[in-house]
Structures are given as C-alpha cells and as structure tokens.
C-alpha cells in the first residue's frame, strides 16, 4: 500500500518537474514559427471536423430535451437561454476537451512515443538539439492555444443555426426573435469568461498529460499503446474532476 | 595485454576518446566492470562483442547520454560527464552518431533531415545550406533521393542518409552503432566503403560498434573485443585474429559452444525432466 502511494507520488513529482521543464522551453517554441504552424494544424485544424459535428449534434439534442421540459411549464420560448447557458458554461469546454483528448491527445502521445521508440529523440539529443524545445514545447503550446478556439467553435455550432437553432426554431417552432433575445439578455460576460478559463485549464491539462505520457512511454509497441490509452483515460478523468472543482468555485 | 597500445599505433598524440575505469550497470546487470578504452585519432576503431554486452551503451556513455557509475570518459581531454548541459551540447556538435535504425526524423524529407543540424546550429543562409546538404548527400550517393521521406527509403539508404546527417556539421568523431546489421551484401559493401573513405577523406575518427566480425575487422585500424563487462582482447585486426583467448576465438569463428555456452543457465536436463516437480504444477 505504501509503495503504491509512493510510486504514485513519484509519478506526480516527475510529471510536475516535466511540466516546469516544458514551460521553461515555451519561449523557444515561439522562436520556431514553422514548427508552431505545423503543430497548430495537426492539433487544432485536424480536430475541427469532429468538434463542428459534435457541436451541432449536442445543440440539436439539447434543443429537443429542453423543449420538452420547458413546455411542461409553458416556457418553451426560453429555449435559447437554456441551450446557451448550458453550452457556454458546461458542454462547450467539457465536451470539446473530451473530444480533444480522444482525437489530438492520443495522437500526440502516440507520435512522441514512436519518436522515442525509433531513437529520434535521442538522435536529436546527440545532435545537440533539446527534444523538449524542438518536439515537446511546440506541441504543448499548440494544444493550449487550440483548446479555447475549438471550444468557441463548438459553442457557436451548438447554439447556432446548425445546432439548437435548427431544431428549436426551424423544427419546433420557437420564435427566432425570442430565441436570440433571451440569449442576449441572460448570457453575461462572466459566463463567457468562466467558459474561457475552463477551456484554458482543460487545454493545459490535456496537453500536459499527452506530452508527458508520450515522452515517458516505454520504447516498445506495448509501451506506446499504453501511453495512448493512459492519455485518453487520465485526460478524461482529469477534465471531469477539474470541471467539478472549477464549477464549484465559479458557482 | 601484449598487443601494442593504440597510442603507439598513432604516434605520440593523445587519443581522442579516453575511457578509464568505466563501470556501468543496468539495474542488477553489470554491463561494464572497470574497462579502459582508447580511441586513437584519425583511425577507425572497432568495438566488437556478442549481442547484449553493451556496445551501444558505450556509445551512449561517450556521447554523455547516460552517466557511468564510476570511471571517466574524456573527449579531446574534456571530461564528458562533468560538463553542464550547455557544455555537453557544445561537445556533441563535435560528434556525430549513426543509430542502428538511422533515427531519421520521420516528418522531414531526406534533404531537411540532413539540413536539420545546420539549421539548428548555424546561421548560414539557405543557399549555402542547400549546397552543403547536396555535398553531403553526394558523398553518400543519395543526392537524387533528397525529396523522399524516410519511410520511402530502404534500410541501407536510411543509414546512408543518417551518415550524411551525422557528418553535416563536420564532426571530429563519428560513432556507428551496428551499421551492418540486417544489410544485404551490396549495401553492406557500400557502407563499409563509406565508413573507410569518409574517415580518410574528412580526417575523422570513427568508432564502429558491430558483431559482424569479418566486415568490421577489414575496415578498422584497431579493434577491441568486449564481453562480460571486460575488454578481452585488443590490438590491430591481425593481433586480434591471432589472440589466444578462447572467448575471442569462439567469437571470431562463430562457434556455437565454448566459453559462451549454448545453453542459458539452467538446472541439469535430466533433473529438470525427471525431478520431483515434473508434471506437477501447483
């Protein structure tokens, strides 16, 4: 039992130390604009399709569910408010982060793990190039930047004409004016700020877990597979736990 | 050892790499137990030994990637393991290493791979980098493959590209990790010729780690045989061939049984088959 806790704490310590090394290397990531562009593309742009589609489906489902409940109290016209608040505060950051962990996080961990298994990282070290600066920092930073942008796109898709609006207004016949006016009246800057904080925190956590798992993967096929799985499992749990903590503070 | 020391072979100049009293363990397994190795300047030195004796480990210790438990490694008079990270990186710019599988960066083309150290460490204009890269690629005969990606190359070609990359900063020392493993006769011949000719033409010092005895002895000036954490034999290729050590002879001739037994350590065969535990698995 004590060894289990000891090992766990050792792992946390190593991961924290690694995080500080990566943060110290962030300025040199900014010095490599080509690397940054490439990573923003593979982490962010390639996640667009899944985020856009999921956003509109979540919006459509929320419209159906909320409309039924709101109708019971004769408040069908508040559909826009209900969708907008739940998406901005919760679904946007959380679902985007979960999708990000599955799409980009696993890809990051597998890529870095394979680079390690094929000696590319020690090859760089032997060429006097720090792999944390060249490989890890640009990927971490790209994840950090992409997450809020993806969450914003998700939110717009869920509330907008391809999501909640499509079902609520076009199909269920809620008045378009009251849909948008309600949102405008109830949604405050605070909500958007909190949403942004959440997705920044999730972005940092997901990217940290992914690059750590990849960088410390055992250099075998089993090791890379384990790193990929761990990334998705740990990221998902971390996102949900962090979401609870953040929500409790923002309530 | 009765064979002449490498110092004598290369005149009175100090060796480029001096390994003294090196000890290194991998968990409970002792890889090196107080070995002394000298790599003479301007020569091709072979490090031979059975698989699993830590020949690759030696290269990583010389490159400062791993730290020894005791002993020292000095490169051109500088103690590799007492350097700060920045000093170590400065030192590594003077070394090139060829990994067993090439270790090319898979997201870059052949051209960009060879240009990688130049772009990272120099402020040369792109036109000059292009010239340098094409010169290095021409030296290994792959100027025409510059636009290919590593996955489109054969094993031998990957190693030649990696060689071009290893010499792109004009290092003093090039370390080859098992360059001949898994090569067909033609690419083996190409690699052997390249190692020898580049060493002479560029005034390099080369370390070739290998267990392909004939190939590596035919291109080296000096050779070490390592097994069981010790240096078993050293000298010019002729001296090593004439060695009286039974283990060196078993290794050179590829005999299946001898000082290195065919059987992994186990209980006697008959006892294993007929003993009390036979057929009873609790």
N-end to C-end Cα span of chain A: 37 Å
Radius of gyration of chain B: 21 Å
The termini of chain B sit apart by 53 Å
Tell me about the biggest sheet of chain A? none
Protein structure class of chain A = mainly alpha
Largest sheet of chain B: 6 strands, mixed
Structure class of chain B? alpha/beta
Our estimate of the beta-strand percent of chain A is under 5%
Low-confidence stretches of chain B: 1-11
The percent range for helix content of chain A is over 70%
Question: What does this protein structure show overall?
Answer:
Chain A is mostly helical and 251 residues long. Chain A has helices at 2-24, 26-30, 33-43, 48-72, 79-117, 120-126, 131-159, 164-171, 176-186, 189-215, 221-250. In chain A, α3 (33-43) packs across α7 (131-159) and α7 packs antiparallel against α10 (189-215). The two termini of chain A are 37 Å apart. In chain A, 45% of the residues are buried. Chain B has 282 residues and is an alpha/beta fold. In chain B, 36% of the residues lie in helices and 22% in strands. Chain B contains 11 helices and 10 strands. In chain B, α4 (110-121) runs parallel beside α6 (155-166). Chains A and B meet through α6 of A and α3, β6 and α4 of B.
Give the helix/strand layout.
The complex is a heterodimer of chains A (251) and B (282).
Chain A: H1 2-24, H2 26-30, H3 33-43, H4 48-72, H5 79-117, H6 120-126, H7 131-159, H8 164-171, H9 176-186, H10 189-215, H11 221-250
Helix pairs in contact in A: 3-7, 4-5, 4-7, 4-8, 5-7, 5-9, 5-10, 5-11, 7-10, 10-11
Chain B: H1 6-9, E1 17-26, E2 29-39, E3 44-48, H2 55-62, E4 70-75, E5 78-79, H3 85-92, E6 95-98, H4 110-121, H5 126-139, H6 155-166, E7 173-177, H7 185-202, E8 205-210, H8 213-219, E9 222-227, E10 230-235, H9 237-241, H10 246-253, H11 269-274
């Amino acid at each position: 039992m004590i060894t289990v806790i000891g090992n766990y704490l050792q792992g946390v310590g190593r991961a924290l130390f690694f995080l500080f090394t990566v943060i110290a290397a962030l300025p040199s990531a900014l010095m490599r604009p080509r690397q940054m562009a490439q990573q923003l593309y593979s982490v962010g742009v390639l996640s667009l399709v899944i985020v856009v589609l999921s956003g509109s489906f979540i919006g459509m489902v929320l419209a159906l569910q909320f409309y039924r409940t709101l109708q019971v109290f004769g408040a069908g016209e508040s559909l826009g408010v209900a969708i907008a608040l739940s998406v901005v505060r919760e679904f946007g950051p959380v679902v985007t982060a979960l999708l990000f962990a599955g799409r980009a996080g696993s890809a990051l961990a597998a890529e870095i793990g394979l680079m390690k298994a094929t000696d590319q990282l020690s090859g760089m070290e032997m060429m006097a190039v720090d792999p944390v600066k060249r490989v890890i920092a640009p990927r971490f930073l790209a994840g950090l930047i992409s997450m809020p942008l993806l969450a914003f796109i998700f939110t717009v898709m869920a509330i907008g004409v391809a999501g909640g609006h499509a079902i609520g207004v076009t199909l269920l016949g809620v008045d378009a004016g009251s849909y948008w006016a309600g949102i405008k009246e109830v949604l405050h800057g605070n909500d958007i700020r909190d949403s942004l904080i959440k997705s920044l925190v999730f972005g940092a956590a997901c990217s940290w877990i992914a690059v750590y798992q990849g960088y410390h993967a055992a250099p075998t096929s089993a090791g890379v597979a384990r790193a990929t799985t761990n990334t998705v499992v740990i990221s998902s749990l971390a996102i949900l736990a962090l979401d609870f903590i953040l929500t409790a503070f923002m309530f | 050892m009765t064979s002449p020391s490498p110092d004598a072979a290369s005149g009175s100049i100090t060796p480029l790499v001096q390994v003294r009293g090196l000890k290194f363990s991998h968990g409970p397994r002792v890889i090196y137990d107080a070995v002394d190795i000298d790599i003479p300047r301007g020569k091709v030195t072979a490090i031979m030994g059975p698989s699993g004796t830590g020949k690759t480990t030696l290269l990583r210790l010389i490159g400062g990637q791993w730290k020894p438990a005791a002993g020292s490694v000095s490169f051109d008079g500088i103690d590799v393991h007492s350097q700060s990270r920045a000093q170590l990186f400065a030192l590594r710019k003077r070394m090139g290493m060829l990994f067993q599988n090439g270790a090319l960066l898979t997201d870059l083309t052949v051209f960009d791979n060879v240009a990688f150290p130049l772009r990272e460490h120099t402020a040369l204009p792109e036109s000059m980098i292009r010239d340098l890269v094409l010169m290095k690629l021409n030296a290994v005969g792959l100027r025409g493959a510059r636009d290919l990606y590593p996955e489109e190359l054969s094993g031998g070609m990957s190693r030649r590209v990696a060689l071009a990359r290893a010499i792109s900063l004009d290092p003093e020392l090039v370390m080859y990790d098992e360059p001949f493993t898994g090569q067909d006769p033609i690419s083996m011949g190409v690699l052997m010729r390249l190692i020898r000719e580049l060493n002479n033409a560029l005034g390099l010092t080369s370390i070739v780690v290998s267990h392909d005895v004939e190939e590596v002895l035919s291109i080296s000036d000096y050779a070490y045989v390592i097994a069981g954490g010790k240096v078993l034999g050293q000298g010019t290729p002729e001296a090593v061939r004439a060695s009286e050590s039974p283990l060196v002879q078993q290794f050179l001739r590829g005999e299946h049984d001898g000082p290195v037994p065919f059987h992994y350590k186990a209980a006697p065969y008959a006892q294993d088959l007929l003993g009390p535990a036979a057929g009873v698995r609790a």
